[in-house]
Design goal:
The structure holds 2 protein chains of 2 kinds. Chain A is of the alpha/beta class. Helix content of chain A is about 35%, strand content about 20%. A 9-stranded mixed beta sheet of chain A has the order 3-2-4-7-1-8-11-10-9. In chain A, a hairpin with a 2-residue loop joins strand 5 and strand 6. In chain A, helix 2 crosses helix 13. By secondary structure, chain B is of the alpha/beta class. Chain B is about 35% helix and about 20% strand. Chain B has a 10-stranded mixed beta sheet with strand order 3-2-4-7-1-8-12-11-9-10, with helices on both faces. The two termini of chain B are about 15 Å apart. Classes of the chains: A alpha/beta, B alpha/beta. The interface between A and B is large, with 60 and 62 residues.
Chain lengths: ~375, ~350
């Protein structure tokens, strides 16, 4: 039986297009120091460090955990580096949580980052691989056809994606760390923004951000000592399916469905729509909000868009989604998944400030990656299981 | 701690260049072999974890393509470290500790022959702001490390040649070796230097290769095979990256990992250590206290074949083989990562249970 694990420290950077004021070590330290400060711990108190980020070719540093060992206080300690594509921020937190749950350590620091201003993501994502079609248009080119398939399948009205784009940016105004600040955004400005990959308009995509996120995870013993309001990890799961396989449904991936099902089983949740108070879903393109609502079981297949259209995913709705502003407002790629996990934990700790959901006690953090094929999720709760 | 047993290990023949096959094509027969050996089907495995780096293939998410070798349909619980697969082995061990898995498949892969100049690519591990622009290569840093060791008076060029001689000799009986032979000390000492004081025989060769291992909980392991090999201790530690703040003739993280893994080296029958340069074996022998180990690197070590990203897992696999073949009962596997032995992992293994 696994030991209990709790989140007692949460830190993130101010996310921005270019954090020219800090190097990569400076960026990760900014998030890590905030998490340590929140936990009331110092570097010396940490037993092990788990680092995550998206492909090394983004920044051009091979296995950067080696370079960042002293910046993250890991010298003389165990240090690991996780990489599971876009889901990596979530997977990294889960690998770190396993160190506590397995009884190996009691206080673990986990950090994820991306410094896209020192990167060339489009270049790194577009290599010529022999015998494979080039993915020249980057992620948007890959995901637009999936969104078109979703719209065709569900008859969702054309403005659903635009509503998500507006809602997430208005939520971001309440989050001091969010990258995009667009107080004047509305359905009309989104509609008039240039079409990039039909049906994805410019304002329906995520930004490129510099940013990092850090969590301090502890055993039950330390959680009691360190925090009046820890977020308890009620469950954590990862699932993977292949990129190219004609039997898969990329609009409603089986790996995502099975991941959520196993997660709810682990967390003792039988009706996620009722029992979860909010969710942070990995939504890099607006339409992925209704798609993931269905995939994680918060809506019936074909019905996710109705929750969005009816305003149920706003902070005041019945299932608030991405109160932080989500990936649509801040996207330091490698950290984006951990930010979802962190925001879920902030909510159940009641520490989400202006974007707090009243009385949130159970929340879902979700991340995905690759061609909608890698999933990592956790459920955190205010009450000890 | 939950008892974890290694029940199977397979690797590909180590080649200077595998021009025909992709990573997935190299992995597929090895994974089939390791699962068949334990009487397992792919669906019996409840956790999969791998180690690799995008910088060998020059493709982002290169581990994604390798998934075709295991077949991830229906979906599987899967994870990946951008580290040597010895750390994937560690993650599998952790996962079993949590109760989240009973049978885990671990694999590592990489074709070091893909880059035109592997040394230039490995240099991308260094400080990107201060060291990379200088154009220094890991082999040059290793040569500086060797020089520091020699000048400390703790080792001689002859000691280094003896390391190469013994490993290359032992590699002759390793069917997967890329390079081995019975060399005279004179031949090794007089070989042309590629980075003074290192000759090609002091440096692990560029190698393509993959490896896979299956680990399981005690109850499952004992059902699967007659003689599982048990993990008695495992730990890994890291030193600072900046060369100037380290005594390069020392490897504190290796010493600490040994201590924390409970490696009482005086009682070991076998040790397989990952020393990509001959002088690094001398450093590791000293800091890890391996002087009295009965058999050191029976496989010939990485001087006989160095498939980056699986070479560490292969060290653990070699100890597993040694014990299952009944040649000894207690062993130590070691893996390293980064320049000049920056990061080190130690696992102690035992054949007998209880």
């Amino acid at each position: 039986m696994a030991n209990l694990c709790a989140v007692v420290g949460i830190g993130q950077t101010k996310h921005d297009t270019m954090r020219g004021d800090v190097s990569i070590p400076g960026l990760v330290r900014e998030a890590a120091l905030r998490a340590l400060d929140d936990a009331g711990l110092s570097w010396d108190d940490i037993d092990a460090v788990v680092l995550g980020k998206a492909p090394d070719m983004f920044e051009g540093i091979m296995m950067p955990e080696l370079f960042l060992a002293d910046a993250l206080g890991a010298v003389n300690k165990p240090m690991m580096r996780v990489h599971t594509a876009g889901s990596v921020g979530g997977s990294t937190a889960l690998v770190a949580a396993n160190l506590i749950q397995g009884g190996i350590h009691e206080r673990v620091l986990t950090v994820a980052f991306e410094k896209q201003s020192e990167s060339e993501a489009m270049w790194a994502l577009s290599p010529r691989i022999p015998f494979q079609p080039p993915m020249l248009a980057g992620a948007g080119g890959y995901f637009a056809p999936l969104i078109r398939a979703y719209i065709r399948r569900t008859d969702a009205p054309a403005d659903v994606g635009m509503r998500v784009a507006v809602k997430d940016r208005l939520n971001a105004l309440k989050n001091p760390y969010a990258h995009l600040k667009m107080p004047d955004i509305n359905l009309e400005t989104v509609r008039k923004s240039p079409m990039l990959w039909d049906p994805i308009r410019y304002l329906e995509t995520c930004p490129s951000s510099d940013g990092a996120c850090a969590l301090v995870l502890t055993s039950e013993n330390y959680a009691r000592k360190l925090s009046a309001k820890p977020a308890w990890v009620l469950g954590g799961q990862m699932r993977t399916e292949p990129t190219m396989f004609s039997g898969r449904d990329q609009v409603l991936p089986l790996a995502g469905r099975e991941c959520a099902k196993a997660l709810y089983g682990e967390a003792g949740i039988s009706d996620p729509g009722r029992e979860l108070d909010m969710a942070e879903l990995y939504v890099p393109f607006s339409w992925f909000e209704p798609m993931w609502l269905e995939n994680v079981g918060l809506a019936e297949p074909g019905c996710g868009w109705k929750l969005t259209s009816e305003g149920e995913t706003e902070i005041t709705g019945s299932m608030p989604i991405n109160c932080s502003g989500g990936v649509m407002s801040s996207n330091p790629i490698g950290a984006s998944g951990m930010l979802r996990f962190a925001e879920a934990a902030l909510q159940v700790r009641g520490m989400a400030g202006e974007h707090q959901v009243d009385g949130a006690t159970k929340a879902l953090g979700h991340a995905y990656g690759g061609g909608s094929q890698f999933f990592s999720m956790w459920v955190v709760g205010a009450d000890k299981p | 701690m939950v008892d974890v047993g290694i029940v199977g290990f397979s690797q590909s023949t180590m080649l200077a260049c595998e021009p025909e096959k992709t990573d997935a094509e190299m992995l597929s027969p090895v994974i089939t072999e390791v699962l068949d050996g334990c009487g397992l089907k792919r669906q019996d495995v409840d956790f999969v974890v791998s180690g690799s780096t995008d910088y060998l293939s020059g493709i982002p998410f290169s581990f994604v393509h390798a998934l075709d070798a295991i077949g991830v349909w229906p979906p599987v619980a899967e994870s990946h470290v951008e580290m040597d697969a010895a750390w994937a082995f560690y993650e599998a061990w952790v996962k079993i500790q949590t109760g989240g898995a009973k049978i885990a498949l671990v694999y590592g892969f990489g074709k070091s022959s893909t880059p035109n100049d592997l040394d230039q690519v490995m240099a991308m591990q260094l400080d990107p702001y201060h060291l990379v622009p200088l154009g220094i290569k890991p082999s040059s840093l290793a040569a500086l490390q060797a020089r520091i060791l020699l000048e400390s008076g703790r080792a001689t060029m002859e000691d280094m040649a003896l390391v190469a001689q013994r490993n290359l000799y032992q590699g002759q009986s390793n069917p997967w070796s890329l390079r081995s032979g019975n060399f005279s000390l004179d031949a090794l000492l007089n070989a042309p230097k590629i980075a003074e004081p290192l000759s090609e025989f002091d440096c692990a060769p560029v190698t393509d290769g993959v490896a896979a291992m299956v680990v399981a909980t005690k109850d499952v392991a004992e059902q699967l095979v007659e003689r599982p090999v048990w993990v008695r201790g495992i730990d890994h530690r890291i030193d600072p990256p900046a060369m100037g703040v380290r005594d390069l003739s020392d490897a504190p993280s290796a010493r600490l990992a040994c201590e924390k893994a409970g490696a009482h080296c005086d009682k070991l029958d076998v040790a397989e250590i990952y020393a990509p340069y001959s002088h690094q074996e001398l450093i590791l022998r000293e800091v890890m206290g391996l002087a009295s180990v009965e058999k050191l690197n029976p496989s010939g070590g990485v001087l006989c074949g160095h498939p980056i990203m699986s070479a560490g897992l292969i060290r653990i696999g070699e100890v597993f083989r040694y014990i299952t073949e009944g040649k000894g009962d207690r062993g130590l596997g070691h893996a390293t990562s980064g320049s000049c032995l920056q990061q080190n992992l130690v696992v102690t293994l035992e054949g007998k249970h209880g």
